[in-house]
Each structure stands twice: as C-alpha cells, then as structure tokens.
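F.,

This is the one I mentioned.
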C-alpha cells in the first residue's frame, strides 16, 4: 500500500510541473526569427519536417482563417493522461517576412525544440519568396 501511495505522489508531483498551453503562450518567446517565406508555406513545411522526427510527441496544427497566423503545438500524453506541451511555434505573416516565435513548455521537449528550430531556416530556403507588393496601382503597368 505504501508503495502505491508513493508512486501516486510521485506522479502527482511530476504532473504538477507540467505547463498548460495557456501558460506556455503567456511566456516570452525563447527564440524569435524572421524568415523570407510566406507564412502558410513555411508553417506547412515545418509541420512535415517535425512529423518526420522520431519522437513521442505529436504535432498539432492550427491557423487563423485569414492565413496570417499559424500555431504548431508539439504535445505528448503523460502517465496520467495529461497533455504535456513540449513546445509551440507561432508563425505570423508580416510584410515580406514571417516572424516565428518558439516557446518551450515541459523540459523534456527542449531537445526536440532545438532540433526543430533549424528546420525553419531550411524550410524558408525551400519556400517560394513572398509575393512582392506591386509598385504600381492595380491596372497600371510600366511602359
């Protein structure tokens, strides 16, 4: 009985160290970068690249309907069936650039987060460049 109680207490202690997604999103970013690639193409490329890494974590993709913001949230289940956030990438379309913020969650997600960050740069090199804003108003072309 004593052993079961100590295992339960250990599990509760460990689960108490797990940050919720809301807590992870409130933290300042651990890394920030600007990349010359359209946000949708960059986010989808990074999604595929992270999914290819052998890991106990699963990648969840969500985006705003206007395709200007995307989240890649990397999570796994704990022994107590709690969702543990390893890290999250937040993609925001800016003029000519996509800003990416990395926020780390649970400490065991750190290694995967460090593997994922260079993938963003590789995907940015593979993605088509963002559409340049036209120097002329619609319907007007250079002569």
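My design for it:
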């Amino acid at each position: 009985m004593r052993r079961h109680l100590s295992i339960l207490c250990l599990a509760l202690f460990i689960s108490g160290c797990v940050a919720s997604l809301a807590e992870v999103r409130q933290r300042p970013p651990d890394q920030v970068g600007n990349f010359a690639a359209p946000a949708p193409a960059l986010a989808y490329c990074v999604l595929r690249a992270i999914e290819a890494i052998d890991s106990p974590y699963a990648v969840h993709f969500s985006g705003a309907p206007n395709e200007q913001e995307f989240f890649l949230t990397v999570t796994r289940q704990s022994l107590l069936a709690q969702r543990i956030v390893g890290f999250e990438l937040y993609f925001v379309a800016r003029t000519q650039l996509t800003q990416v913020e990395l926020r780390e969650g649970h400490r065991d997600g750190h290694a995967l987060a460090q593997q994922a960050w260079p993938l963003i740069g590789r995907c940015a090199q593979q993605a088509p460049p963002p559409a340049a804003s036209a120097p002329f108003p619609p319907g007007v072309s250079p002569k």
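The helical segments are 2-16, 21-26, 39-51, 110-126.

Talk soon.
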